[in-house]
Each structure stands twice: as C-alpha cells, then as structure tokens.
C-alpha cells in the first residue's frame, strides 16, 4: 500500500508543487534570507516541534532536482510518521531549504515559487545548512 500512496502520489505533487499550491504547510527558508533563519524559526506557527524533516529539493524520488517542489517529501514523510508511528502532527515541521535549482523547467516556469537561481554548492551550501542546523538547536534545544 505504501508504494501506491507514497512514491507516485508524492512524486506527482513534487513535480507540480507550484501549480497546485494552496496554502503554506511547513517552512520555506531561502538562501537570500540566510541571515534571518533565527527570526523565521521564532515565527514558526508550531511551538513544540520534536521532529523536523528537511529537504533541499535536489534528489526527489528519481525525478531529480525539483527545487522547492521537494517540500512534498517532508510533508509526505511526516504524514507517514503520523499515520504509522503515532507522532502528533502538532510536533512536526516540514522544511525546505531553497538553495536554487538547476532544473531549467523549474527556472523557466512562470508559476515556480522558488528562488530563481542556479543551485548554490560547495562552501556556500554547507555553511547555509550548518547555519540552519545551529538555528534549530537554538530554537528547540
């Protein structure tokens, strides 16, 4: 049952994320806002977070770089943790670190909601991820 529910359904949602977006579910942190990560976490609507699933949208279910469309992965995984593991959704936070995308289809899509920039890499990327990790530790020690 999980292969039917998870992989094709979540994959389809990731590929069409900007087309089907209705409301915010989770936290989107883009590289240009890297100096505001602490503020963004303080403003998160969930106060007692115990489980965070994070993606940068690069390797999505064999579909490749989906940019912020990768948010379907944290949402899907946390839904499974709730359904199968009994973790209350009140304690979960899906996050996408928007580091750009190298997917020309996403970059040229007028509805794409992510940062329209080639994906950052190397030291810039690692420093951004590390800053996010440290900010999470400060917010939810």
TrEMBL record:
<dbReference type="InterPro" id="IPR046346">
    <property type="entry name" value="Aminoacid_DH-like_N_sf"/>
</dbReference>
<dbReference type="GO" id="GO:0006108">
    <property type="term" value="P:malate metabolic process"/>
</dbReference>
<protein>
    <submittedName>
        <fullName>NAD-dependent malic enzyme</fullName>
        <ecNumber>1.1.1.38</ecNumber>
    </submittedName>
</protein>
<comment type="similarity">
    <text>Belongs to the malic enzymes family.</text>
</comment>
<dbReference type="InterPro" id="IPR001891">
    <property type="entry name" value="Malic_OxRdtase"/>
</dbReference>
<dbReference type="GO" id="GO:0005829">
    <property type="term" value="C:cytosol"/>
</dbReference>
<dbReference type="GO" id="GO:0004470">
    <property type="term" value="F:malic enzyme activity"/>
</dbReference>
<dbReference type="InterPro" id="IPR037062">
    <property type="entry name" value="Malic_N_dom_sf"/>
</dbReference>
<dbReference type="InterPro" id="IPR012301">
    <property type="entry name" value="Malic_N_dom"/>
</dbReference>
<dbReference type="GO" id="GO:0046872">
    <property type="term" value="F:metal ion binding"/>
</dbReference>
<keyword id="KW-0560">Oxidoreductase</keyword>
<dbReference type="Pfam" id="PF00390">
    <property type="entry name" value="malic"/>
</dbReference>
<keyword id="KW-0520">NAD</keyword>
<feature type="domain" description="Malic enzyme N-terminal">
    <location>
        <begin position="1"/>
        <end position="140"/>
    </location>
</feature>
<keyword id="KW-0479">Metal-binding</keyword>
<dbReference type="GO" id="GO:0016616">
    <property type="term" value="F:oxidoreductase activity, acting on the CH-OH group of donors, NAD or NADP as acceptor"/>
</dbReference>
């Amino acid at each position: 049952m999980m292969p039917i529910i998870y992989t094709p359904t979540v994959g389809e949602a990731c590929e069409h994320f900007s087309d089907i977006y209705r409301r915010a579910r989770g936290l989107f942190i883009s590289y240009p806002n890297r100096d505001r990560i602490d503020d963004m976490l303080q403003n998160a609507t969930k106060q007692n977070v115990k489980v965070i699933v994070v993606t940068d949208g690069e390797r999505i279910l064999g579909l490749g770089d989906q940019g912020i469309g990768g948010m379907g992965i944290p949402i899907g995984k946390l839904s499974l943790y709730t359904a199968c593991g009994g973790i209350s959704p009140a304690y979960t936070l899906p996050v996408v670190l928007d580091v750009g995308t190298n997917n020309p289809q996403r970059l040229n899509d007028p509805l794409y909601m992510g940062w329209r920039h080639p994906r950052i890499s190397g030291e810039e990327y690692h420093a951004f991820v590390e800053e996010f990790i440290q900010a999470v530790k400060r917010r939810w020690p």
